[in-house]
Amino acid sequence: VAVPLLLMWSMPLTKRFSLFGGWGTYRLTSKLDYLGATRASTFSLGYAAALSYVYPLSPTVGLDMEGKWYYAAESQHTILAAQVQLVWKLHLW
User: Fold this and answer.
1) Of 79, 55, 52, 56, which is closest to residue 67 (Cα–Cα)?
2) How distant, in Å, are the alpha carbons of 32, 38, 49, 71, 82 from that of 23?
């Protein structure tokens, strides 16, 4: 199991596209149960990047589609994830 603890930055590219990036640490935990049980955990440096697109459903509500890439350096674990979220603009400037 890897839990990312990252400091992320975001930058809007256009009205609907945003770019995210960050670095930090991953808490890596593993459990092995074969002729006895053992458990280990460690921290690993790593980074992440994401690209987001918001499809507007109304002036205040949208559907956010996001592709994320995570990388933990010590174990060389990489994951590519897709996420869909409902976003709501609480306040318009």
Assistant:
1) 52
2) 29, 30, 9, 9, 19
Sheet containing 61-72: order of strands: 2-12, 17-33, 37-56, 61-72, 77-88
7-38 pLDDT, tens per residue?
999 999 999 999 999 999 998 888 888 888 88
> Which token pair is 17?
């596209």
Beta-carbon contacts of residue 18 (< 8 Å; ≥ 6 apart): 10, 11, 12, 51, 52, 54
For CA atoms 84, 88, 92, 93, the dihedral sign is negative
- pTM metric for this prediction: 0.75
Mean pLDDT of 71-82: 85
Residues 72/44, Cβ–Cβ less than 8 Å: yes
Dihedrals phi, psi of 5, to nearest 5 degrees: -125, 85
